[in-house]
Amino acid sequence: MTAALLDGSAEAIAEAVRTGAASARQITQQALDRVKAHNAALGAFTDVTAERALAKADAIDALRARGRSLGPLAGAPFAVKNLFDIEGLPTRAGSKINRDRPRATADATLITRLEAAGGVLVGALNMGEYAYDFTGENAHDGPSRNPHDLERMTGGSSGGSAAAVAGGLIPIALGSDTNGSIRVPSSLCGVFGLKPTYGRLSRAGAFPFVASLDHVGPLTRSVVDLTLAYDAMLGRDEADPAQAGMPAAPALPTLGEGARGLRIARLGGYFAQLADPGAVAAVDRVARALKSERVVELAGAEAARSAAYLVTMTEGAALHLERLRTRARDFDPDVRDRLIAGAMLPGAWIVQAQKYRRRFRAEALRLFRDVDILLAPATPCRAPRLGQKTFVLGRREMLVRPNLGLFTQPISFVGLPVVAAPVWAKGDELPIGVQIIAAPWREDLALRVAAALERDGVVRAPAAKLA
Amino acid sequence: MNEGAPKAFDPEALAEAMAPLLGLAQPPESRVQTIVHLRIAAGHAEKLLSIPLDDHEEPAPVFTP
User: Fold this and answer.
1) Which ipTM score applies to this complex?
2) Would you list the domain boundaries of chain A?
3) Which residue of A lies nearest to B32 if distances are taken between CA atoms?
4) pLDDT band at A268; cut points 50, 70, 90
């Protein structure tokens, strides 16, 4: 019974716990058992908080026994990318170096909020070092592996988050997304991922990478779960200075309104040029289902991607400069040398990039005057093989690590909210994601469209069948 | 407008000069990869710097005291 519940949604788990069909302890224990059975193959978890999880589950069951109302995620197991502070653990952020830091004395804000909604934290998840990664490979902890093909990448840097959800170990994971680190692994592992508007959800207690561009958000196997988790995490937090003072706007009340009446277009130009046939076909399929034939240009997207690339190099380098000086040998070399290069870039380039960010924002807002939703590939191709260093896009050989996010990077550069939704065409052995992009602060619209597509079977996120 | 654009950008010279100034002691293999990444960055900068921006255009970050 509980095993079947774990294959489904957090929504169904919470319903079962509320009605007494299952206890939070049974479900938590089942999730811990699954982690134990499959984590060696998936490389998803780096820490398991079993004792804490069972104590939390017992507290939920005790509340129910006393007749108290339970939250919308009651008893639903979740885990977080290991850059989120978990009280009592060093926040490793995918690195070897951070393991020497003092243990966190409090949980990150978003963990507190998910637990307040009844979620049960079961551990911390593998990630690319310091989040500077699109592959899901980690030099210290080993790679996270794609549950749909263990020899392929999860994508990164929230690779463990996507592996844990796609592998059916947990229904909800948290990730972070600076340039695509939620959307890329969501695409390659076939789960739903939400990168909210920049400044929407609190980053307090999440180890930073690029303060100008860092976002946090959930990954799930259903759109309802994505929405429940997002709604639970909304709200002002003075501890995140980048958080905008926007009112919390829960998306669940309008989730079932469908896509009718929304003006939907796909992005052409830059977003069509380097996508492989599978990525193009996925966007075609979604556009067809939404009865959208419009193609629009987001002018300057390629330059926006370049600007994001340079801001990332420089801010990342500034964050880690002292560690590069004193502990260079303890970095993943692939991360270290990009950061060192970032420390050497001329300041004028970065000021130009930040000026261009305002220009490109105006371009995006202009587009949203007569469009509500934009569609684009989440990745240029399906999951590459683990260890693969280069791929060919548009007849050009490119490095995999920096270029898996070439379609996500321009969008997060100006902080637009995006749902990455997985498409499986008939006969496909691997999924690929489509970005459903909305205007700033309109996460509700992107979620509505994703829910309509899920209802119609156009996008879906089945758990992988693990041996 | 394009003054400072990376037409004459020399990543080897930049890495050579900057590493000691930044206090970075790099093994040779790290130096080679750093130069690769500087070259990639210069390609991005070239695209970005080719876009004319007015003196009065403000950068994106807004600081509210």
Assistant:
1) 0.92
2) 2-455
3) A337
4) very high
